[in-house]
Amino acid sequence: MADSDLADPFVIAGVTLTSRLLLGTGGASSMTVIAETIDASGTALCTVSMRRHGVAAQGSLLDVLDARGVRILPNTAGCRTAREAVLTAELAREALATAWVKLEVVADEFTLLPDPIELLDAAEQLVARGFVVLPYTNDDPILARRLQQAGCAAVMPLGAPIGTGLGLTNPHNIGLIVAEATVPVILDAGIGTASDAALAMELGCDAVLLASAVTRAQDPTLMATAMRHAVLAGRAARLAGRIPKRVHAQASSPTHGMAVL
Amino acid sequence: MNVTINGRPREVAAGITLQVLVAGEVGGGRGGAAALDGDVVPRSQWPETTLRDGSVVEIVTAVQGG
């Protein structure tokens, strides 16, 4: 059964995805793990990277993804400049016959934080070249706004730096980004465990993209299952409308009619 | 003539095409793309794209990544 259905479809650039959980393949120890985590997660989209031929024996990766029927989203991981990112996106479009790209332009290898100046420059160039641009961005509402204005098909703010598993370090900003977004907001990076994914969805994100939290878990397939449930639960909770937080207690049992004992 | 392929110096036949070069490197499988001297060359143009002495070629494929 699809995790995103007709009553609550998840749509990017006119394409409906059947799950609000997007899965990165980085860090998985084998093709078997990738296949099992895709199945357990229910995802409909997986990311890949572009690297020099021969640096890794990855011949069957595309076959595994094709067999699962998932959409492939190439990224520009490792790029430091707009020029590098645009060229990498062009290579990916040529190699994989998709105009979708997860745009990553990071500033340094220690934080892996997006370089906002290069990121926006790259986004503008790629939109002009006809790409469907999904930028990995800082948790900065103004930068997210500028990326939307540039024509990006989604914005993907980080919860925390890539691979840290710190969760959502600035949920207030994520909420601000969601509040004014006119394109899907996808929480990307920083997820450590299921409650982080649920929180992102409760804050109103349209989807969650994660890799390390699953691929580097002790039991990746079980964590993929946990993430699937977390995203579903978080989405349902968002739609259901949570109760307001209160300072003092409010009895849930009747306050009248107590027996006098 | 001498060219650079994925950062490594290589000696290849004069006038070799990108099509022949990539086929020899990758084997013609899907998921590959090539750049010549910093410009992406569409696969359809590989047969008529010839390398020159000093050409720099990058050949990439999809690998695991977040």
Query: What is the C-alpha radius of gyration of chain B, as a whole number of Å?
Result: 12 Å
State the shape of chain B.
globular
Structural class of chain A: alpha/beta
Q: Which two chains form the greatest contact, residue counts included?
A: A-B, 35 and 24 residues
Give the overall form of chain A. Answer: globular
Q: Report the count of strand segments of chain B.
A: 5
Largest sheet data of chain B: 5 strands, mixed
* Share of β-strand residues of chain A: 15-25%
Number of strands of chain A: 10
Helix content of chain A: 25-40%
Described by strand count, sense and barrel closure, the largest sheet of chain A is: 5 strands, parallel
Low-confidence stretches of chain A: none
- What's the alpha carbon Rg of chain A, rounded to whole Å? 20 Å
Q: Uncertain regions of chain B: pLDDT < 50 for 5+ in a row? A: none
Class inferred from helices and paired strands of chain B? mainly beta
For the largest sheet of chain A, list the strands in their spatial order: 5-4-3-10-9
Q: Helix count of chain A? A: 9
Percent range of helical residues of chain B: 10-25%
Written overview of the protein:
The complex is a heterodimer of chains A (261) and B (66). Helix content of chain A is 38%, strand content 16%. With 261 residues, chain A is α/β, with parallel strands linked by helices. Chain B has 66 residues and is mainly beta. In chain B, 14% of the residues lie in helices and 38% in strands. Chain B has one helix and five strands; from the N terminus they run ββαβββ. Chain B has one helix at 18-26, and strands at 2-5, 8-11, 32-36, 39-41, 56-64. Chain B has a five-stranded mixed sheet, covered by helices on one side. The longest helix of chain B is centred in the middle third of the chain and has 9 residues, at 18-26. At the A-B interface, β4 and α3 of A face β3 and β5 of B. β4 of chain A pairs antiparallel with β5 (56-64) of chain B, so a sheet runs across the interface.
